[in-house]
Amino acid sequence: MAFRLKRSPLFQAGISLHQLQSMILSLQRAFRLEEVRVASTKPQKIFIRSDSDRMEYYRRAFLSLNPMLLPKILTSALGIAPMVNLSIDCLAALLAEIFHEAYPMNDLEAAFKKVPEILLSKPDRIVATEMFHVKAFEQACQIDKLGEYPPRRTSRNETDGDGDHRR
């Protein structure tokens, strides 16, 4: 395949086979990463009241973003330079924990707005928007839990936790 590419009008006559092979390997690696990104953006169900489900959702969402954006998001969210030799998985887990623990949405939105590349890429913008929707829903559930609204009306066939019919 490299020999056919070398004869192709797409490349200069002086390109070496080593350069072509290196380019092919880089493209294959990029396509594999893109496949992982696309696969991780598929809809997933989460139990919003489960901390572990939310943490895993945020981790997967950060993994589906362009990997080059993660250090920039970390820098804008915490104001510190990313740690050296931190893998993408560890970086995504760290960002997921920060996103999960942070309460004020304004702080999170401000951190994301400092990384304009998110807004320029439609897939990244969609993932970020979905993350903010999940975070807003999570906070609404926490407020609801704190407010303890009156119990809902039930049908005659429903029972309470002890097996007795509710009235």
TrEMBL record:
It comes from Penicillium brasilianum. It comes from the Eukaryota. Residues 148-167 are annotated as: Disordered. This is Uncharacterized protein.
